[in-house]
Specification:
The protein is mainly alpha-helical. The protein has 2 helices and no strands.
Amino acid sequence: MHRQPNPDNRSNNVERLQDMVQNTIENMEKAEATMANAGPEERQAIEEKNERRRESIEGMREEIRDEARARENGEI
């Protein structure tokens, strides 16, 4: 049985991406809170992961701007 993929539904992308940004920020805050009890290696790993999270957030924010622009232009 061959299944067809679901059609692309972009109508809620802005909200979904905003939720993802908020969740990522919360994860960063939790990680920073655990750094107080972390050893040097674990602290460095947390810092590196949070840096990747910051980069991810920037990408998601750019995508939010693109999706909002598309919504304003009636593309969605």
